[in-house]
# Entry
Amino acid sequence: MKQRMNFLLSLMVLAIACGVPYKQMEKNYERRDHINTPDYSDLHYWAAHPYKKDPADSVPKPLRANYQQDSSVDVFFIHPTTYTDDQLPFGYNAPINNIELNTKTDYTTILFQASIFNEVGRVFAPRYRQANLQAYFPKNAIDSSAAIAAFELAYADIKSAFEYFLNNHHSGKPIVVAAHSQGTTHGKRLLKEFFDNKLLQNKLVAAYLIGLPVAENEYSQIKACVTPDQTGCIVSWRTYREGYTPPLILEEKYKAIVTNPLTWNEAMLVSDRSLNKGGVLLKFNKIAPAVAAAKVEGNVLWTPKPKFFGNIFYTTNNYHVADLNLYYLNIRENVANRVKMYFNKKH
# Structure
């Protein structure tokens, strides 16, 4: 119960930390409440797409002077849970056309997470009938059955979107798969179905599967990234305050992939926060320098309490919601490095 409360608290912190009045943007969204099946030939069903202007195109102001977008790579980003109302107003799956949820998604995770990857290539992020947060916390057998069905429906949308992307936009380009939280639940499955020991594996620059565990032996061919310039591999971590590992994680019977996002290896050493080139936390256009350190500890990543203005109110030990944002610039630099190495190896 305590772990669950920490997780929910972290989600509430996201809404506060992002500081984006996304409700003000709802007036710009087209109402299609009578339709509840995504059609990925329609840009309306993409939270991010290179053929429209969206929050994934945003670049923090301090980075704009040196920003040069490359379109030689495609990024397929799967967003985390934004359907968090524990009263389940729409049942276990979110409707695809709920304006409030779509606006919330676009001006939180798409803006603050998907934008990390916009310099290396075109960002594709599908809307999908995401499972409610409660699907991760079933209370009984009925809840469990409903949760399984909810994740199946959500993944069916992700799979449909990815197949549409492959058939209509991919054109043989290298691919970066990126996901967080529920996105990683579906991203793990997508990687197994479309990449692992498949022809498409040759197109994988890297998979950034963040926020939920990925076992080291999850795949037959795809392994953890153990150097900063390795390609065709998996990057993953879950972030907690130094000294804290949730009891459920301590009970895990497998070794999870844990990448240090400051050194990009698995070394169990403390990487000082001075190696952190900057996070994007409270305001999108402000970089928080040296905000967090990093240390691989068992199946998780540890950092002392992040340093940023207002951190006195950030009392949770669970930094799940900031898994990507604490290391925003380091991730941005790393994915660019892996793309460069991918092309170097091909020539």
Summary: The radius of gyration is 19 Å. Residues 1-19 have pLDDT under 50 and may be disordered.
